[in-house]
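Quick check before the chapter quiz. The format below is the same one you will see on the exam, so make sure you can read both the input and the output lines.
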Amino acid sequence: MLAFKLGAAVTALVFTAGMAVAQPAAKPNDAQIAHIAYTAGNIDIAAAKQALQKSRNKEVRAFAQDMVRDHQAVNQKALALLKKLKVTPQDNPTSQSLKKDADGKLAQYGKLNGAAYDKVYAQNEVGYHQTVNGALQSTLIPSAENAELKSLLETGLKIFQGHQQHAEQLASSLK
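Here is the expected output.
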């Protein structure tokens, strides 16, 4: 029950942080979009690496390995595109808020073990991907000015929608 309550609280934090992405005060520019997307990818990589350290569940570990592989690949493509375009990612309040919230969650998760950890990790992955996918659809993709950046974000969205479905299956199997 504690794991469920913690998972619900963490998911609520993710949605709160996601609202900053979904409803920014002003339309983000391409440099800010790149920073937000890169930050979001790194957050999921860090969570997955923690899962690989803490979990002994084969399905959780396989999912976490997929998250590291896929998010690192997308981030590498993003960095290559930014280099090509000569654009420097611009730090912004949304990226900062996402990072701060994620650091707090990783610290909380670090206190859990076994099945309790696995459940909270999987539940957070569902909520996190819902939030990131929503932000991509409603704000980041429509706000992107550069066609190549927009295309990369659209490709990422397709991958991350698959992640969300996988996370939902994983979370339901751990109940």
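If your answer matched, good. The CA atoms of residues 25 and 35 lie 16 Å apart.
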